[in-house]
Amino acid sequence: MLELEQVNIYKFIEKAVKVAIKEYDKEQKVIDEKRVFHNTKLLMKHYNDLKSHIVYSVSDINDITNSDKIELEKEDYDELYILSIKQSKVKTLIMISHVDVSLELLKKEQKRKGVIEKYLALEKIFIGEKTYEQIAEELNCGVITVRRWINEMLTELGIYLFGIEGIKLE
Q1: I need a labelling partner for 105 at 20 to 30 A (CA). Which of 73, 112, 137, 163 fits?
Q2: What is the C-alpha separation between 166 and 55, in angstroms, rounded?
Q3: Is the pTM of the predicted complex or chain greater than 0.85?
Q4: Structure letter (DSSP) for residue 59
Q5: Dihedrals φ, ψ of 60, to 5°?
Q6: Per its UniProt entry, which superkingdom is the organism in (predicted)?
Q7: Cβ(106)–Cβ(156) below 8 Å
Q8: Are 88 and 119 in contact (CB under 8 A)?
Q9: CA 2 to CA 151: how far, in whole Å?
Q10: Angle between the 116-126 and 79-113 helix axes, to the nearest 10 degrees?
Q11: How many CB atoms lie within 10 A of CB 98?
Q12: Distance between alpha carbon 96 and the CA centroid of its chain, in Å?
């Protein structure tokens, strides 16, 4: 009888652990989906700033004006610091190039589906820096529709940007 109770207890514990693991996996998927969406939105929010960083960041002595060169030549360069600036510029360039390719793929997909206005809303809000109200007026729809389209486009863009991390797996 004692052995039967132990077996039942072990079975109960085994079921409880399986249920807990399933629940944990569900929570992790939700967290991952939110993280991908958040990161995609953050990239798009700073898209123009990152583009400017690539163009205007000083990563080479040739990027410095003559008056700056004179002052800097007198200073002792910290090679590691300069290397980190160069690496930052390169990483930003790679990421923005990836975003540009992903945006182009998303645009083509929306054209193919016949709903290019969804992509245009995303482009206008993040790259064109327009307001939701301005976009709603331009696209002849409501502000809520614009918000819905942008959220939808950010979700799809996240798949292009982050691959499997951007897909909701059941």
Answers
A1: 137
A2: 29
A3: no
A4: -
A5: -150, 150
A6: Bacteria
A7: yes
A8: no
A9: 58
A10: 150
A11: 14
A12: 11
| The residue type at 23 | E
Report d(CA 135, CA 141) in Å as an integer: 8
Look up residue 73 and give its two tokens: 């030549």
Nearest C-alpha neighbor of 126 from the set 62, 60, 49: 49
What is d(CA 59, CA 68) in angstroms, rounded to the nearest whole number? 13
Helix, strand, coil percentages (3-state) for the chain, rounded to 5, are 85, 0, 15
Total Cβ atoms within 10 A of residue 43: 21
The answer to whether 135 touches 54, Cβ cutoff 8 Å, is no
Query: Hey, what are 74's tokens?
Result: 């007198």
Can you point out the beta strands (E) in 89-169?
A: none
